[in-house]
Amino acid sequence: MRIIDRIIIPCALATVSLAFAEEQQIAVSTVDSGRLYADYSFGDCCTLDAWDSEPNPIWTDNCGTMGGYCSDGRDVANWMFQIPQLPEGAELVEVRLKVYRQTGSVGNATLKLKGAGSSGLGIYSAQQAYFYPDQSQDVYFSSGLLHTFVLPLSYFIESDLDPYLIVNIYRSSVLSFINSGNYAPKLEFIFDVETGPPCDGDINEDGVVDGSDLSQVLGYWGSSSALHDLDGSGLVDGADLAVVLGDWGDCPEGD
Questions:
Q1: Are 97 and 187 in contact (CB under 8 A)?
Q2: Mean pLDDT for all residues in the chain
Q3: 82 vs 70, more confident
Q4: What confidence score (pLDDT) does residue 110 get?
Q5: Measured between alpha carbons, how far is 36 from 129 in angstroms, rounded to an integer?
Q6: Which CATH architecture has domain 22-194?
Q7: Where are the domains of the chain?
Q8: What is the pTM of this model?
Q9: Which residues contact 83 (CB under 8 A, 6 or more apart)?
Q10: Would the CATH topology of 2-18+196-250 be identical to that of 22-194?
Q11: Mean of the pLDDT values across residues 148-171?
């Protein structure tokens, strides 16, 4: 085909290198949970000094008195998660907490984060998370079941991030959460992973870029064939030829 005599391939085309990012997600379940609460059997309804391990549901509430006696004790919902190891080269994009509200009126609550060096969750660690959090933010609960809260990304990209994270939620009125099964709270880590270029040059989709694919590009040279316009420019030209040459050989698995 004499048409090939008129094709000029710039030297730069031989060094085409593209990078692509693929968004992935890791969902993390709790490793422990518990309700930090005030044991008001002796009339102290506000001091957080008792622990209920892994209750379902788990709830939050404020303390209250009636006629000089405790009518309600303070309650704080706590969960512990293990921070996952992301793939090498991954870039963290977003971290979300998902909780399923069971009962309680609509309104604001306070969500707090506290790093932990081990997986033990109890009175002391929950008190530390409540009184001395690393991060604190206001969150809003609607009348819906599922609630998703975006957590501060800056917290999770610190070089000295602890291997475990305590999350607690408190509101000065009853608010309860499902704490078991598929509706138990989860952390979702969304991240981008850089991948190699796709095997766009495999026009006939036989798993290898070879002379057959090259001949197809040459056969449709100068046309607007969408199948052969590999770079989407609207014209089959040298850029599409460069894609074929850049992908030459066996396609990577999964492409």
A1: yes
A2: 87
A3: 82
A4: 98
A5: 11
A6: Sandwich (2.60)
A7: 2-18+196-250, 22-194
A8: 0.72
A9: 28, 156, 161, 162, 163, 164, 165
A10: no
A11: 95
